[in-house]
Write a structure and sequence with these properties.
With 347 residues, this protein is of the alpha+beta class. It is built from seven helices and 23 strands. The longest helix has 19 residues. The termini are far apart. It binds fe (ii) ion. Fe (ii) ion (FE2) binds next to strand 4.
């Protein structure tokens, strides 16, 4: 190193040190680290197989009482997030089980949440006192600050997928939580943003939707009706069919931060490769198949849960005739902020 260069480097280092004493940094030597050229998800795609999780659900039922647990949930936590409750960027999820006669007492929180029923029937989620039946394939919403409790007057265990925006809410430090007390007053959810997001998905409104009614019809989508709507939906160019669950009042995403879809796949036909800045957690509603997510191949079957972290090329192929995937995404959230970018290419 010549003397001039050495002197310049020493001066630069001295300046950086001086800036640090004032809690300031130069942009010029870290510009490319601060403003990356492309998104790079912290998490690799991940899978929680039903064959692994089902025995653990059985153990949790046998070993953990509701008196102790309040809510018997197995959190699906990706190792990339170092112990935080996150399944992928912005989204968290878990597998919740309720046994006959059990009750998960009412509470409410700033978190937006959904439940997608994976096994059983006969349970009820009460949302602001509107009773929503829970049977396999049903989707029940608990929007921010709505009171909700779970009861199970039926028989046999009920298992559902819990999906929340917990990592986002934590990042924004916007968490509020309240346990219900006698006389607690309910506030119905506000309509979500209107349907402006471009998509070739067929919209599916809540059961018995009435735009003037802010009641139970806003919080439950029956699995039976969703399956029927999926069968009637036109096939896309790659043979897949896509439903978007929409808010009963605004016809936008079901919740401001959670945007849900049901996708049916044509056996043996790969979907068009796509990538998005949005993230998804998938629950296999039925059938089997495989998904290619960047360089990872995920072979899946019914009740498996797997993630689609942002900005990976993704394609799905069914290996059975009845392959259907439920998808919880943050697509609407990303669009709302102006961060949604999506691309497609041939398989
Ligand atoms: Fe809750």
């Amino acid at each position: 190193m010549n003397q001039a260069v050495a002197a310049t480097a020493a001066a630069a280092s001295d300046l950086v040190d001086a800036l640090a004493t004032c809690h300031a940094q130069p942009l010029w030597d870290r510009y490319h680290r601060v403003t990356r050229r492309l998104p790079a998800a912290a998490d690799a795609p991940w899978q929680w197989r039903w064959t692994d999780m089902e025995p653990l659900i059985g153990r949790a039922c046998a070993e953990v009482s509701m008196e102790d647990a309040e809510r018997r949930v197995l959190l699906l936590t990706h190792p990339a997030f170092a112990g935080a409750v996150a399944t992928t960027t912005n989204l968290s999820s878990g597998l919740q089980t309720l046994l006959p006669g059990e009750v998960a007492r009412p509470h409410r929180h700033a978190l937006q949440a959904i439940r997608y029923v994976m096994e059983g029937a006969g349970a009820v989620t009460s949302v602001n006192d509107h009773r929503c039946a829970m049977e396999v394939g049903d989707l029940v919403l608990t929007p921010a600050w709505t009171w909700h409790e779970h009861i199970h007057p039926g028989s046999g265990r009920v298992v559902w997928f819990d999906g929340l925006d917990l990592p986002l809410c934590t990042q924004l430090d916007s968490m509020f939580f309240e346990i219900a007390t006698p006389g607690a007053v309910a506030v119905e959810a506000l309509p979500t943003r209107s349907a402006s997001l471009r998509s070739d998905a067929v919209p599916l409104a809540p059961d018995a939707c009435d735009a003037a009614l802010a009641g139970a019809s806003r919080y439950r989508f029956s699995g039976e009706r969703a399956r029927e709507a999926l069968r009637r939906a036109p096939a896309r160019a790659d043979g897949s069919r896509l439903l978007r669950y929409v808010d009963g009042v605004s016809a936008g995403a079901v919740l401001p931060t959670l945007d849900c879809y049901l996708m049916g796949l044509a056996a043996g036909q790969a979907t068009r490769r796509c990538r998005s800045t949005s993230n998804a957690v998938c629950v296999v509603a039925s059938g089997s198949g495989r998904s290619v997510v960047a360089d990872t191949v995920i072979a899946w079957t019914a009740n498996d849960v797997f993630t689609l972290p942002h900005w990976n090329w993704i394609s799905h192929t069914a290996t059975s005739q009845d392959a259907v995937i439920f998808m919880m995404t943050d697509r609407e959230l990303m669009a709302c902020m102006g961060y949604l970018r999506e691309e497609e290419s041939e398989p």
